[in-house]
Amino acid sequence: MTTQGAIRVGVFVFDGAEELDVVGPWEVLAYWAAHSDLRPEVLTFSADGGGVRCAKGLCLVPDTSADEVGPLHVLVYPGGRGTRPLMRDEDHLAWVRGLRARTPLMTSVCTGALVYAAAGLLAGRPATTHWGSLDELTAADPSVLVDADARFVDDGDVVTSAGVSAGIDMALHLVARLESVDTARQVRRGIQYDPDPPV
Description:
Oligomer: single chain
Number of domains: 1
CATH topology: Rossmann fold
Strand order of the largest sheet: 5-2-1-6-7-11-10
Mean pLDDT: 97
Number of strands: 11
CATH superfamily: Class I glutamine amidotransferase (GATase) domain
Order of helices and strands: EHEEEEEHHEHEHEEEHH
Largest sheet: 7 strands, mixed
Low-confidence stretches: none
CATH architecture: 3-Layer(aba) Sandwich
Shape: globular
């Protein structure tokens, strides 16, 4: 991605966002920012800059507001139960479309894809979401080419991931794409992300 100045990545947070959808990608991207010669900037923001309560009760204080965040190269839009009212909020969907027009790379985790679909960003495009919400994705926009098996789907200027922990995989993919595979491997080792579930 060609940029002027440092790459700026914004993670949007809202009431009802799934905790790991937010902090999983943020951990990957913040570690990358702290160790990369590219010196990317990674920040969180909410609609009004105020704190949010995530789906399971974790409270987050974002860095800034939607009005103050400034230009972004990458948006990370998490999922969670809080996406359901947002996907019916016409003002919010108009804001998402506005971001699409000026943000080179739009990404979503889990049911964040439902908001993108409701905003028309996924029309006729391949995408994925949490396995339990694939039907909702189709209902939001029947033209979406749903990939039920992928951990993430990279369709150029839009990247969607499957549920919750898949956002970590997607974020590592973003590091590989924005800098290099070797850098992504260093980040993965740095955060000791070696999935080998005991069950």
